[in-house]
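Posting here for the record, re: zinc ion.
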Amino acid sequence: MAATTSRDLRTRNRARVLRALVTASETTRADLATACGLSPATITNVVADLIREGLVEERGLVPSEGGRPIARLGVRPDGAFLLGADVGEKGVAVELFDLALTRLDREFHDAPTRATDPAPIGEALRAAVAAIRARNPEREPRLVGLGLGLPGIVEDASGSHEGHGEVLHAQSLGWPALPVDELVRPDGLEVFAENGAKTLAMAERWFGAARDVEHAIVALLGRGVGLGVVSAGELLRGSAAAAGEWGHTKISVDGPRCRCGGTGCLEAYVGADALVAAWRERGGGPVGTGWRAITGLVAAAEAGDPAAGEVLDRALDVLGVSLANLVNLLNPQKIVVGGWVGLCLVQARRDDLAERIRAASLTRPGSQFSLELCHFEGDAVALGAALLPLERLIDRPLTARSP
Ligand SMILES: [Zn+2]
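Prediction output follows.
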C-alpha cells in the first residue's frame, strides 16, 4: 500500500513538472519549484529522472547573485514525437510535432466525395498517417501516438481518450455512429480522439490566447460551428463528452434547416455554407464555398457592397447574441474566436462584435470578458490533437518501442 502511494506521488510529481516544462519555453529548477509547489529536493529528483528519460535537457548556465551559476532547463525537442490530425469532412491534415511542439512535417489528403459515408475520410487519414511515418522512420522509436480532432461528438466511456471503445457521432455529416478504431488503427501506434473544437480549445489553453485563463470559451467557426469551454481550468465535457455542441443550439424556433436535421441552429445562420448561400440569395457572386468565398464576402462588405454588408451584419448580430448567451451562462474571462470563418469575421469586425455581445449580455458579465482572435493562424486542431498523446506521455513514461 505504502509503495503504491509513493509511486503514485512520483508519477503525479513527474506529470506536474513535465507539464510545466512543456508549457514554459525555458525555466530553472528554482522556478519549477515555485510553479509546481514542490520542494527543491523533489524538483532535483524529478528533473534527474526526466533527463534520464531523454525528455529534458540542461541548456547552459546563467550566473546567479553571489551563488553558483544556475542551469537553464527545457524539454529536449527530439525527446518525443507526436502526431496530430485535423479530420474534416472534406479532407484530413496530419502533422508531426516534436516535444517542443514545433511542427516538423505535414500531410494533407483530400477526400473527394462528400457522401454520408465516412470511408473516404478513413482512407485519406490512413494514407496521410502512413506517408508521414514513411518520411520519418528515425523518429518512430520515440513516437508517442496519434491524436485525432474529429468532426462530431467523440464519446468515450472510459473518460481517458485512449484505447478502443471511443465512438464518433457525426450527425451533421450524416455518418452512422463510428467506432474510432474503424477509422484508423495504425500498426504499433496508440490512437487518441477528441472533438475538433475541443482540441482547438486545448491548443489555445496550453499555448495560445487562453493560456493561464481559468474561464474561457473558444469558438470554432468554419463549415461547422463548434465550441470548447474551459471552466475552472478544465475542459467541460458533460456526462458523455457532448458538452459544447454550440453550433446546434437554437437561434429561432422556426429557422432554417440545419445539416443535423433540426431547424434554427446557430450553424444554419453562421456556418460557411449559410453565409455563402445568404450572399448568393441577395445577388452576390461568391467564388466557391470555402476561404475565397468568405474573404470575398468580407472584402465586398468592407468596400461598401450593400448585399454583402447586410449578410455580414446579420451574421454578426446572430453571433453576438449567441456569444452573449454563453457570457450569461458561463461568465468567461475570455472569448477566443478561431476557425477560418471566425478568423475572417473577427479580423474585420472585432470591436463591432464585442459591442454586440456586450449589448446582448447582462451588464456585469458583459463587462468581464475580453474578445480575442485565436493565437494560431488558421486552425490549430491538429496541434490540439497532438496534445492528446502528449498528455499520455505526461502521465506515463514512454516505454521503449522498437521501430
Ligand atoms: Zn443543427
